[in-house]
Amino acid sequence: MNVGKPNAKDQCTLYVMKFILDDGRTVHKIGITCVNPVDRMLQVLRSFFMAYRYMPRASIKRFRKVDNHFGKETELHHEFAGYKCVFDKVFDGHTECFEVDEALILARYDEMCSGVSSC
């Protein structure tokens, strides 16, 4: 299964995942996938576990199929670049994580995706 490499012409899902780490920090991951968002979350969790040997508490806060998924993802990443979370170990998706207020990130996501049908 090729979870992390969507094609530019496909309509893929733009998602926001929430992870609560053992140290109490809350991190949001902004990404895209062309498979079920739950499968993507489990892939990230497995990779995180292999790096850190524990599973953070995880949930999917938003997911919608969108056109121009790369553009929307990039726009959100740039907008929240000042909140980027830096990890000391590498796991799948570690470069797409942000320590930002959930209300702020979800409001911006909803604004960007308004009028787009939900999955």
Brief digest:
The protein is α+β, with helices and mostly antiparallel strands and about 120 residues long. The protein has helices at about 35-50, 70-80, 100-115; strands at about 10-20, 25-35, 55-65, 95-100.
Word description of this protein:
The chain is of the alpha+beta class and 119 residues long. The chain has three helices and four strands, in the order ββαβαβα. It has helices at 37-52, 69-79, 102-113; strands at residues 12-20, 26-33, 57-66, 97-98. Strands 3-1-2-4 form a four-stranded antiparallel β-sheet, with helices on both faces. β1 (12-20) and β2 (26-33) form a beta hairpin. The longest helix is centred in the middle third of the chain and has 16 residues, at 37-52. The model has no long low-confidence stretch (mean pLDDT 91).
